[in-house]
Design goal:
Strand content: 15-25%
Largest sheet: 4 strands, antiparallel
CATH architecture of the largest domain: 3-Layer(aba) Sandwich
CATH superfamily of the largest domain: Response regulator
Structural class: alpha+beta
CATH topology of the largest domain: Rossmann fold
Number of helices: 8
Radius of gyration: 18 Å
Strand order of the largest sheet: 4-5-6-7
Helix content: 40-55%
Order of helices and strands: HHEHEHEHEEEEHEHHEE
Number of domains: 2
CATH class of the largest domain: Alpha Beta
Length: about 210
């Protein structure tokens, strides 16, 4: 109700089956989903949504939940969530999160350039990622993290900068979440040589081609 009062058009569903049914005919700009849904939980619903999207631009998703453990946050973000809001929260906080996620989504979809470093390419229009000609399947959060690193290639980026840019100032992510996502990216991006993602001890990360490679 608070979203409607603040100018957003909304559709609602009381359970997971109804939500999936609505999404077969509607394509909202953003989905807000509670983790603790009857029948299928929110995590399973999002897995099904991401699987059905194929190569289409992913729909932004915000999880709502009373679970605030780091493991639950990592699970929600790793399966394709864009943000994770723990209860209790104010409607003002939720609206701020919604606007931030929509800004990121609009920014990503408005670009048309191809970013590259070495044999790694990111098509900003289609959000397709390739390494040495190999297609790389990334979650929305993994894509944003890689895009930011490549956009600032050869620059050392602090962990705080990455957390603020990828999850915004008011997202209570911590270093372990970031380290988990860097690990995910390395397993998908750095299969080939040379390794591109580098840890700068005590500071953060950098993406670059090693000297002599």
């Amino acid at each position: 109700m608070g979203l409607r009062y603040n100018g957003f058009e909304t559709l609602s569903a009381n359970d997971s089956r109804k939500a999936l049914e609505i999404l077969t005919t509607e394509r909202p700009d953003l989905l807000i989903i509670d983790v603790m849904l009857p029948e299928l939980d929110g995590f399973e619903v999002v897995k099904r949504i991401r699987s059905a999207e194929g190569h289409r631009a992913p729909m932004p998703i915000i999880f709502l939940t009373a679970k605030d453990a780091t493991g639950d946050k990592i699970q929600g973000l790793s399966i394709g969530g864009d943000d994770y809001v723990t209860k209790p929260f104010s409607i003002e906080e939720l609206i701020a999160r919604v606007k931030a996620v929509l800004r990121r989504s609009e920014s990503a979809s408005s670009s048309e350039a191809v970013l590259s470093i070495g044999d790694l390419e990111i098509n900003e229009e289609t959000r397709e990622v390739r390494r040495a000609g190999r297609s790389v399947d990334l979650t929305p959060t993994e894509y944003r993290l890689l895009h930011y690193l490549v956009s600032n290639q050869r620059t050392v980026i602090s962990k705080i900068q990455l957390l603020e840019h990828i999850w915004d100032y008011d997202f209570d992510a911590n270093a372990s979440v970031l380290e988990t996502y860097i690990s995910y990216l390395r397993k998908k991006i750095d299969i080939e040589e040379p390794k591109l993602i580098h840890t700068i001890r005590g500071i953060g990360y950098s993406i670059r081609i090693p000297q002599g490679a």
